[in-house]
Design goal:
about 230 residues; alpha/beta; 5-stranded parallel sheet; about 55% helix; binds adenosine-5'-triphosphate; binds magnesium ion
């Protein structure tokens, strides 16, 4: 049976995560980056957290319905880790092994920011759960979309109105503005602490301009994309 040649380091599949507060445009830009990669003949998939696999999606709906809220941020961090472990083992790692790039709409930095930096869960617990769930699969690049949370709220509200929904949102969207400001600072401090992995991009620009800025960051980090060495 024909064996696939191992991919060279220059052309290996990459794992890119998108992070930031609510409504900053993560989902919009993950889709656009996927299309841009595919236009360059790169095999890529997009996924999201919490979720990405059937078991992790079950945990997602449990958490986002607010059913774990009374358990506190520590137990929620454990639930996120359980979901992430399945996501990594069943979707992220197998795709990367097959040479398929993986784009995730949120990943471990969201746990650091939500449960750790704003939820007050002990650093050691966060770090221990992270190393268990990631099993060596840290992202190669993390795009942190940054903007004023009030302006991002407006986007979420407009989206809800467009969809004919009242703005009830999930429970995170009901939290106070101050809390969201703290969350924003949390993501920025993660970026400061991980300058080799994280790129902060202002999300307060049009979808097209933001898409171009993200593509520039991605190709700067992975110049093999423009050399076509993957093809
Ligand atoms: N650059 C942009 N300028 C203006 N509106 C935008 C921009 N990007 C996205 N939007 C709109 O803002 C809303 C939120 O975008 P999106 O769902 O991509 O954000 P998100 O970060 O994934 O949000 P959430 O955290 O709720 O998942 C959508 O209605 C989207 O169409
Ligand atoms: Mg989204």
């Amino acid at each position: 049976m024909l064996q696939e040649a191992p991919t060279s380091k220059a052309s290996r599949a990459r794992f890119i995560t998108f992070e930031g507060g609510e409504g900053v445009g993560k989902s919009t830009q993950v889709k656009r980056l996927l299309q841009n990669l595919q236009r360059h003949d790169i095999e890529a998939v997009r996924t999201r957290e919490p979720g990405g696999t059937p078991k992790a999606e079950a945990i997602r709906s449990f958490i986002l319905q607010g059913r774990s809220e009374s358990w506190g941020p520590g137990a929620e961090a454990v639930l996120f880790a359980a979901a992430r472990l399945d996501h990594v083992n069943q979707l992220i790692a197998p795709n990367l092994r097959n040479g398929t790039w993986v784009l995730s709409d949120r990943f471990h930095d969201s746990t650091r920011a939500y449960q750790g930096l704003t939820g007050g869960v002990d650093d050691k617990l966060i770090a221990g759960l992270e190393s268990l769930a990631l099993d060596g699969h840290a992202p190669d690049l993390t795009i942190i979309l940054d903007m004023d949370p009030e302006a991002a709220f407006k986007r979420v509200a407009e989206r809800a109105i467009e969809d004919g929904l009242a703005l009830t949102g999930d429970r995170f969207e009901k939290e106070e503005l101050e809390w969201h400001k703290k969350l924003r600072d949390g993501f920025l401090s993660i970026a400061r602490d991980n300058p080799d992995r994280c790129v902060v991009i202002s999300a307060a620009q049009s979808e097209d301009t933001l898409e171009a800025a993200i593509w520039e960051a991605v190709t700067q980090r992975f110049p093999e994309l423009l050399r076509g060495s993957q093809a």
